Amino acid sequence: MQFDHCVGTKLEELCMEEESGQTFGRRMGRWRYQNGDDSQYKSKNLTAERKRREKLSQRLLALRSLMNKVTIIEDAVKYIKELQKNVKVLSDQLMEMEASTSMGDVKIPNGETVVADEMEQDKIEPDVKVTNIDRHKLWMKITFEKQRGRLTKLMEALSVHGLELNDISLTTSTGVTLISSCIQGTKGEVLEASSTRKLLQEIIERI
Questions:
Q1: What is the mean pLDDT of residues 12-37?
Q2: Sign of dihedral through CA atoms 111, 189, 181, 194?
Q3: Taking every pair of C-alpha atoms in the chain, what is the biggest distance, in angstroms?
Q4: Multiple choice CATH, 106-206, 3.30.70.260, 2.160.10.10, 2.60.40.1890, 3.30.70.330
Q5: From CA 144, how far away is CA 124, in angstroms rounded?
Q6: How far apart are the C-alpha atoms of 69 and 166, rounded to whole Å?
C-alpha cells in the first residue's frame, strides 16, 4: 500500500510538472506571438507612413512645377498686353500722320507751311512754286492732276535738263498730286528760281 501510494504521488507530481511545463510553454508561445504581431504592426505603420510622405512630396513637387508654369504664363500675358498697348500707340500715331498728310500740309526749309487746297477733279490747273534755298539749291512745290507715272516722267525730263530732285515728298488727295522737293543741278551750277519755275511749268504741261 505504501508503495502504491508513493507511485501515485510521483505520478501526480509528474503530471503536475508536465502540466506546469505545458502551461509555461503556452504562455511563452503566447508572449512571443504577441510580441511578433506588435513588431509586424509597427513595421506596417512605418511603411505606410513612408509611402504617405513620398506621395506628399510628389504632390508638393507637382504643385511647385504648376506654380512655375502659372508664373511663366502670367509673365507672357503681361508682355503681350504691353506689346498690344505699344501697337495701339504706334497705330494712333500713324493715323495722325496719315490724317495730317492727307490734308496736304508740307513744311519747307524756311519754316513756311504750304497747304494744298481741295480742287475740283474736273478743273485742275497745274501750279508750280519755286523758292530759293541757296545759290545752288531751290525748293519747289508742284500741284497737278493725279495721273499714273507723272512723277517718273517729271524726273526723267529734269534729268535731261541737268536737274535732280532730293528729299521728295509725295501727297495725293481727291485726284490731286502734290510734290514738294529740293531741286539742284547735277553739276552744282547756280540756279535761278524764275527760270527753273518756267521750265517746270513747261514740263508739267507736256507730261
A1: 49
A2: positive
A3: 174
A4: 3.30.70.260
A5: 7
A6: 55
- Whole-model pTM: value is 0.39
Among 141, 119, 113, 137, which residue's Cα sits nearest to residue 128?
Answer: 141
For 132, left (φ over 0), alpha (ψ -120 to 50), or beta? beta
Distance of CA 119 to the CA centre of its chain: 45
Q: Which amino acid is at 48?
A: A
Q: Is 143 exposed, middle or buried (0-12, 13-18, 19+ CB in 10 A)?
A: buried
Give, to the nearest 10 degrees, the angle between helix 193-206 and helix 150-160: 130
Cα-only R_g, the chain? 54
Q: Is 158 exposed, middle or buried (0-12, 13-18, 19+ CB in 10 A)?
A: buried
Instruction: Give 69-101 pLDDT, tens digit per residue.
Output: 777 778 778 878 887 887 777 766 666 665 554
Block residue for cell numbers 500500500: 1
Inter-CA distances, 6 with 2, 18, 20, 50, Å: 6, 18, 21, 65
Structural domain spans, the chain: 1-102, 106-206
